[in-house]
Amino acid sequence: MSMKLLKKLSEAAGIPGREEALRAIVKEELRPLTDEIYTDSLGNVIAHKKGSGKCKVMIAAHIDEIGFFISHVDEKSGFLRIEPVGGFDARVLMAKRVLVHTESGDLIGAIGARPVHVMSEEERKKPLEVKDLFIDLGLSGDKVKKKVMVGDFVTLRQDFVEMGDHVSGKTLDDRLGVYVMIEAVRRVKKHKADIYAVATTQEEVGLRGAKTSAYAVTPDIGIALDVTIASDVPGTPEQDQVTRLGKGTAIKIKDSSSISHPKLVRRFREIAEKKKIPYQMEILPRGGTDAGALQLNKEGSAAITLSIPTRYVHTVVESAHKADIEASIALLAAFLETAHEADISL
Ligand code: CO
Ligand code: ZN
Q: How far, rounded to the nearest angstrom, does the alpha carbon of residue 90 sit from its chain's CA centroid?
């Protein structure tokens, strides 16, 4: 496994609609592995590895990460206000470092809120909300005014690290999926299906890039790659853990965006059994993936999600087990090599 590429993907910055940096990395990686590659008007990168023309498989992994747009610049104090793009828990944002991406370069900032020391008893009881937060650049209002504009975007700043048997950092959602997609395409040897590896945009605001790219590709089979909740942490009863780290790649049965095609679920499971690839079955009560858009494209397609179990999703310490990442690559590559034989009739 190339930790270098995963680190690069994790540390790159790109919120929904501002995925330029990720597009550049994905193009560089996928161009030599595929026959044609292009970018559509939503910024999706669509890479086609030619097959026999009888069966089209589209893989979707989203390149956007949750973040913010600058919504207000206080020209007197220099503090910045933010509009979230994607779902955040304000509790995990407080006291974090950020990068403000401006036309003239990136600025380091800190997310602050009023100190608890000056709050009333009443105020202290209220849960923190994103609207209570602001960004401090350490610059005067005059300087900030010259550098930052409303509409500049903000990402959380975090190093990617190997931590024990895990990897840990920001945006494993869904740079892990992007990584698995690239590595699986690299690993595929003989294949008859036409493979479309698509780095999708704007997933975090409603599967938008997957919608237009699926329309263009019109796949027979759609596979979303994304992280899923691993709540195998103290205080969660076993039946509510969804997935567990180190127990293998997760074959999704359902979430709130899609119910996976039953024959694809069975086929993924059978391949995993045959190749002795560790796997677990996943039912996620809340949350969705690009499979929701793939499945409902035009007259529909047979869709499934292959998930990488991840702890602390949507925080800067998202963590996944290296063995689960490897299992995900192995299972996807094995599926792609025989995808043309998959029976998807119902
Ligand atoms: Co997400
Ligand atoms: Zn995701």
A: 19
Q: Where in the chain is the domain with CATH 2.40.30.40?
A: 67-156
Dump pLDDT digits (tens) for 265-304: 999 999 999 999 999 999 999 999 999 999 999 999 999 9
Q: Of the ligands numbered here, which is closest to the C-alpha atom of 87?
A: 1
> Is residue 69 a contact partner of residue 82, using CB atoms and an 8 Å limit?
yes
Where along the chain do the CATH 3.40.630.10 domains lie?
4-65+170-341
Q: Which CATH class is domain 67-156?
A: mainly beta
| Shortest-distance ligand to the CA of residue 85 | 1
Compute CA distances 235 → 29, 85, 308, whole Å: 41, 30, 22
Query: Cα of 264 to ligand 1 centre, how many Å?
Result: 24
Neighbours of ion ligand 2 (CB under 5 A): 173-174, 226
Rounded distance from Cα 173 to ligand 1 centre (Å): 5
How far apart are alpha carbons 220 and 207 in whole angstroms?
Answer: 19
Summarised one tens digit per residue, pLDDT across range 68-97 is 999 999 999 999 999 999 988 898 999 999
Query: Which residues belong to the active site?
Result: 203
* Residues 27, 37 contacting (CB under 8 angstroms): yes
| Tens-digit pLDDT profile for residues 5-56 | 999 999 999 999 999 999 999 999 999 999 999 999 999 999 999 999 999 9
pTM tops 0.70, yes or no: yes
Cα(35) to ligand 1 centroid in Å equals 30
CATH 3.30.420.10, applies to 4-65+170-341:
no
- Output the CA 290–ligand 2 centroid distance in Å: 8
